[in-house]
Each structure stands twice: as structure tokens, then as C-alpha cells.
Specification:
By secondary structure, the chain is α/β, with parallel strands linked by helices. It has helices at about 1-5, 40-50, 105-120, 130-135, 140-150, 155-165, 170-195, 210-225, 225-235, 250-255, 300-315, 330-340, 360-370, 385-400, 410-430, 435-455, 460-465, and strands spanning about 20-25, 30-40, 50, 65-70, 75-85, 95-105, 120-125, 235-240, 275-280, 285-290, 320-325, 345-350, 375.
């Protein structure tokens, strides 16, 4: 049982049967503040704090908000609001649950919290409500992780992807892979179990289970291969504007943001640090980085500015190389064109509102061979085309196939790769004539790794790492 294997000191399992309490709304003042209770005494603790306005002998009906006042141990009124009771097993945690809906006063909520603790509840640890939902079989680990992602979502598309995962999209994909692997294991084990019988071969398809194992491994690798696009959806991406001084990087930065965020002057080297702002491109948050011009520095500050600029474009997912169309290419720019990876690079020819000094042949080569875009940061010409190109370049892999299942979590990616590696070892062993009993070990390892994704295989410490990243009250 998972409950018996997981006993992290800071996150107690549902089997401890304690009633937990937490303020589940964000810190600060607001219209409504929610105190949440879960556990065998949730209703008893809530009743100690609540006095209904309408006198009734009947207990509150599940899901019905009952108006009244909240009191402390001395029966002094703390606030007025609603009590809502949820009956198991149809609750988020699978346990008896009660919520007190008060005004969003930090002082009133703290008083309610201390009164609930005095009445027998224990303060919840981060993620403990969701942990109990997992331990009580209401959700699996992938759904729990998606709840955290939904809370942290910064764009509508991130929220949509997380919501689909909360509903079990990743779980369903992994379970389909597991079902195929279980079928292979069952046939392989049956052929071993009845190896002495004349019809032992009927348990295996012609050619053995390895063609299907290969197909399954490829399917696992395909799902694992969606991680890079999923990572961008979940975490966002970074785009660095790089180039020589005075090519218009800061002007382009401001134009894309539609605000005057960066200082723009005719003086070379105005930008000395890396400026960062967030763009919503295709539903994915993109960190847009404005960097200092790349040049031979004349002083220590200039050297540090160039160092930071190079660091920014080295770690960025995509690099927008900004060139000044009104002047010839410099040696530094020719070097950048040659050394930057074409998959990461997008070339922009800025200042098309000025006469072309780049040279017609060079401009044509950059546009036709390098996909360069012509824009004017000053007038806005070509900016929408640039925005579309950025969306395509940065997030197309994450957003274009919006109906496709893709993974967004590094833990899932690592476990899928390990499952595929275990199957690859089994395939190689079969080719070398290794006994089926040993090949079963690799197949079972692959099944365990898939089970870890959804939490069916308990690994000490993994749940603590997952649930401790949650906010208190969720």
C-alpha cells in the first residue's frame, strides 16, 4: 500500500486520521476568505465555530451554504458568513470536509484558524489536502501535479492544458501504454509458466512479443519526445534580442511590448544590463530579453554588459538577431550569422524606413536563405509579421498541436525515458538469446517506471518533494 510506504515527517498520510485546517484563500484582504477543514472531525470542529442564523435541528445538507455567525471559544462573534459541508466519499480529499466562508479579513481568518485548532484540528502542511485526495484514491499523482500547474498558470492556454491534465489526460495516455505492456508481460509469463507443454507457443504471437515491445517502446519515446514543447507551455520560453550597438534592439523590445520599457537614445551602448519582460505568445508566456550591443568593450562596465548579453542569448530558447538594414554587416554580425544555430535563430532586418545600406544582394540572401524579416521598430511596419514568426518559432511545437497529448513535467519525461530504456534492454537481450526469465525483469522495470508516473509505485520521498511545492490550504 502507498500509505504504508510514505511517511514523510513534514507531510502526514491520510491514515493518521487527523482533522486538518488551513486558510485556503490567498494572503491579504478580499471579499471572501475560506477556512477549509478535512478529516473525521471536520464537521464537529466546524460546528464548534458556527452558529446558524436559522434555528434548525437538522444537520446542514451536503453542498448547501448555511448562513450564520462564526464564534470563538467564548461565544464572541468573529464574523458572519456561510458554512458548507461536503460528505465523503464525494469530496476533494475523500474525507469529511467543511468550509467556512467568511469575509477576506486576515485578522478574522487568523482568529477562525486559532479557534479551529483549539477545537481539535491540526494546521495543514503544504499540499496536504491534495495529498489526502491522492492517498484516498480521488486523484493520481499526475492529476495532483496538474492541480499545482493550474494554480500557477499565467496564461489561458497554460490553464487549459493543466485543466485537461487534472481531468486525467496524461494518466489516460500512460495507462494505455501500461495496458499494452501488461499484455506483453502476461503472454511472456504464460509461455514461461507452461514451457513444458506442447502448446506453450500459443501464448506468444508469431515472432514473439518483441515486435509489439518495439512498437510500444517507440510509442513511449514519442510521448517522452513531447516534453520540450510541453516544458515551454508549462514554464514559458525565453527570447533574446541580440546584435551590435544601435541596431534598434531596445526600440524593437518596446515595440513588441507596446510600451516604453527600455531607454532608447542615439548614444551607443545605452543598454548596459539585460532587461526582461513577459509576452503572451500563442498562450505561452515568453520572457523577452533586451541585451547590450555586442562589441569590443572599452571599459569594465562595457565588458560586463557584453558578458551578460552573451549569457542571455546562450541560455535563451530562441535568439532574434537584429541587424541594421541601413548599414553594411560588421565582422561581428557575420560571425553571429555563421555561429548561431539556425533552429534557434530568427534574423530581423530593422530600420526599413531608411534607405538600404546593407546591399541588395546581402538583403536578398538573408531573406531567401535565412528567412530574415524586414521591420521598422520606429514606425511599426512588419511588427505583426515578426510577432507571428516568433509565435511560430517559439511556441508552435507547444501550441500548434493543441489537441495532442504532450507531457509538461520533467519527472514524467525522466520516467518515460527510463521505461523505454528498460524495454530496449529487453529487446537487445532477446536478440542475443537471453533467457525469457531475465527479459521479464526488464519488462517489469519498464512497468514500474510507468507506474511511478501515476503514483501506483511508491518511492520513498517522492511524494514529499511533489506535495511540498503546493501552497498551504490546497
Amino acid at each position: 500500500m502507498i500509505e504504508s510506504r510514505f511517511r514523510a515527517p513534514s507531510v502526514q498520510a491520510a491514515g493518521d486520521a487527523a482533522t486538518i485546517v488551513a486558510i485556503s484563500t490567498p494572503p491579504g484582504r478580499g471579499g471572501i476568505g475560506v477556512l477549509r477543514l478535512s478529516g473525521p472531525r471536520a464537521m464537529a470542529v466546524a460546528s464548534a465555530l458556527f452558529r446558524p442564523a436559522a434555528k434548525s435541528a437538522a444537520p446542514p445538507a451536503a453542498g448547501l451554504a448555511v448562513f450564520g455567525r462564526f464564534v470563538d471559544a467564548s461565544e464572541d462573534t468573529i464574523d458572519h458568513g456561510y458554512l458548507v459541508v461536503f460528505r465523503p466519499p464525494a469530496t476533494f480529499t475523500g474525507e469529511e470536509t467543511a468550509e467556512l466562508w467568511a469575509h477576506g479579513s486576515p485578522t478574522a481568518l487568523r482568529l477562525l484558524m486559532s479557534t479551529a485548532v483549539a477545537a481539535g484540528a491540526r494546521p495543514a502542511t503544504p499540499g496536504e489536502f491534495t495529498l489526502r485526495a491522492f492517498l484516498n484514491g480521488r486523484i493520481d499523482v499526475t492529476q495532483a501535479e496538474a492541480i499545482r500547474d493550474l494554480i500557477d498558470a499565467r496564461t489561458a492556454f497554460q490553464a487549459k492544458v493543466a485543466c485537461e491534465q487534472v481531468r486525467g489526460r496524461i494518466s489516460e495516455a500512460v495507462n494505455r501504454l501500461k495496458d499494452r505492456l501488461i499484455e506483453i508481460l502476461a503472454r511472456l509469463e504464460a509461455s514461461i509458466e507452461f514451457s513444458e507443454e506442447s502448446e506453450a507457443g500459443r501464448f506468444l504471437p508469431e515472432g514473439g512479443p518483441w515486435p509489439e515491445a518495439r512498437s510500444l517502446r517507440e510509442a513511449i519515446e514519442t510521448l517522452a519526445g513531447t516534453y520540450e514543447r510541453g516544458r515551454r507551455v508549462r514554464e514559458g520560453a525565453a527570447v533574446a534580442l541580440v546584435g551590435s550597438p544601435n541596431v534598434g534592439k531596445s526600440s524593437l523590445f518596446n515595440r513588441l511590448l507596446e510600451e516604453d520599457r527600455a531607454i532608447v537614445t542615439e548614444v551607443e551602448g545605452t543598454t548596459r544590463d539585460v532587461l526582461e519582460e513577459t509576452l503572451d505568445l500563442g498562450g505561452v508566456p515568453v520572457a523577452l530579453l533586451d541585451t547590450a550591443g555586442l562589441h569590443a568593450p572599452r571599459d569594465e562596465a562595457g565588458a560586463e554588459a557584453v558578458r551578460r548579453a552573451r549569457g542571455a542569448f546562450e541560455r535563451a530558447d530562441r535568439v532574434v538577431l537584429v541587424l541594421d538594414r541601413s548599414r553594411p554587416l560588421s565582422e561581428e554580425e557575420r560571425t553571429l550569422l555563421d555561429c548561431l544555430d539556425g533552429q534557434r535563430r530568427l534574423v530581423v532586418l530593422n530600420k526599413i524606413d531608411l534607405s538600404c545600406g546593407l546591399g541588395a544582394e546581402t538583403a536578398l540572401r538573408l531573406k531567401q536563405g535565412g528567412g530574415a524579416l524586414e521591420v521598422s521598430a520606429r514606425t511599426g511596419q512588419g511588427i505583426e509579421e515578426l510577432r507571428r514568426a516568433l509565435t511560430e518559432s517559439v511556441v508552435a511545437e507547444g501550441a500548434a498541436g493543441r489537441e495532442e497529448t504532450f507531457i509538461t513535467n520533467m519527472r514524467h519525461h525522466d520516467l518515460l525515458r527510463r521505461a523505454a530504456s528498460a524495454l530496449a534492454r529487453a529487446e537487445e537481450g532477446a536478440r542475443r538469446g537471453v533467457s525469457d526469465e531475465y527479459l521479464l525483469l526488464d519488462c517489469r522495470e519498464a512497468l514500474d517506471r510507468l507506474g511511478e508516473i501515476t503514483g501506483e509505485v511508491g518511492i520513498d520521498g517522492i511524494y514529499e518533494r511533489i506535495f511540498m511545492t503546493f501552497c498551504i490550504g490546497k
